[in-house]
Amino acid sequence: xxVLVAVLGLGALVFxxxxxxxxxSLALRMRPRRFYVGFPPALVRVQRGGIEYGIGxxxxxxxxxxxxMHRPAASxxxxxxxxxxxxxxxxxxxxxxxxxxxxxxxxxxxxEAVRLLREGVARRELSELTRRSTEKGLGDLEDALGPDAxxxxxxxxxxxVIAAGPLANVALAVVxxxxxxxxAGGKATTRVDQVTPDSPAASAGLRAGDRILAVGGTPVxxxxxxxxxxxxxxxxxxxxxxxxxxRRVVLGPVAPRLxxxxxxxxxxxxxxxxxxGEATGSAFRATWQVTREIVxxxxxxxxxxGARDIxxxxxxxxxSSEAAKSGAESxxxxxxxxxxxxxxxxxxxxxxxxxxxxxxxxxxxxxxxxVAREIYERVSVVGIALVVLLFVIGLSNDIGRLS
Length: 403
Known about the structure:
Elements: H1 2-27, E1 34-48, E2 51-65, H2 74-87, H3 92-103, H4 107-122, H5 128-145, H6 155-184, E3 188-195, H7 200-204, E4 211-215, E5 218-219, H8 225-232, E6 238-244, E7 247-254, E8 257-259, E9 262-264, E10 267-271, H9 276-300, H10 313-326, H11 328-346, H12 354-367, H13 373-402
Antiparallel strand pairs: 1-2, 3-10, 4-5, 4-6, 6-7, 8-9
């Protein structure tokens, strides 16, 4: 069950990312054509205001289709309308006219030629597969040549639409951290909040709600002493004295386990909630500190020393699954960290990541004209290769940790 919660949580973070792109594109008059919760095939879809809203069968994240991400090229015609020419050769002249106008950078003429071609297609008897592919190809060309196409917009509009996805993840991370600090992120108490399953504490009989009175024979009134006393045991068995239902209960002895460089029994102490103002300040400070550490880790990748810090989706799901077992507060904190990581990774200046699109939008704004599609494709190949390499390194790390 915790794995399912972790997977859905990761999907929700991706959905929030796409929602940021969608809302920004609406606000900046680049009316998107599709917005889906989940991925196709579609279970439900409906048209509203020229936008297709749908629910996909694969319940992970979502996607938004913004019209005209690239200026159309003559080579696009063959890829999108090749099946039509093969089935209706008499339309080859009309298709070639679209191709020639695109090659001449006559966008207005090309748009008119596409519309005339659509009228010709409507009068032809075509197979269902050819009709569907032709409708999609003509629609994509019309979107890319239309006035609300992404590539036509001012540079600042394009940058904002693309940056809105990562910014939505940053905003979500801050909100989650505010909730975390306001609910349980304050000063720790001596009362147990959660006990990790299959941990030494669980085997000793420790329960959520117990108040710890002594560790290894040493009385405790300050929660900060509890982890110190457990760590000082160096793995030797300890007894715990707790208050449960108004009576003293002795648990153990039980030996702590070495985990992540520290000896632990496997329980979480309940924290006091912070006032909302204080929680908000703590959330922003934590966001900044984590951002610096993530950026530093990415920088260490250049020297190879940061490779061990990378995780794939397998490790992310495994980590958030463990956090879900520990309770809602821990899960919210981990989701905040993952959301922040998604934002920062997407801002890397690599195509097809958001940072790559931002870099190209700025470059095109400086040049005063669009970058050729061929350059986009070549740079994307490099970016995809690097992203795949990061995935392979992360997966290798995760397999090592799990084994």
